[in-house]
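Running co-folding for guanosine-5'-monophosphate.
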Amino acid sequence: MSLDGQYDEGNIFAKIVRGEIPAAKVFEDDDTLAFMDAFPQGDGHTLVVHKRSRARNLLDVEPAELNAVMATVQRVARAVRTALAPDGIVVTQFNGAPAGQTVFHLHVHILPRWEGVALGRHGAGMADGVELGALAAQIAAAIV
Ligand code: 5GP
């Protein structure tokens, strides 16, 4: 998958937005949705997507949609800090398969980091659903 291509309505995040498959939701407004990464690189690994955008990546997203996504990224990152007290927070976003993108619906990763705790591999093991739900609730409770 390159930087160019058709938006696939059947991608996994489109299915999550449509409620066709479950996700541990953290935050939702009219435009955006934040939910836990099911194959997290660490505790609190959260993803933010636009709910109506058909952008595959940063290069084809409408600026207004990007603004909405980034406002939610900031809001959720603040809540992650309050809820989980990390020492740092990584915000990442991949464009095209060679850059590490695996789901072609624009999304931003929020990854809390703690001193001395190594990051897990991108897209490694699936998290326990109950644990993910508990983390999502903890972060959601800290949203302001
Ligand atoms: P990308 O590699 O495209 O930047 O990130 C896609 C992310 O989606 C990966 O971190 C992966 O763990 C996550 N992911 C893949 N499938 C699912 C899923 O079904 N549910 C959730 N919540 N996350 C997923």
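Result summary
DSSP finds three helices and five strands in the chain.
The chain has a mean pLDDT of 96.
Job closed.
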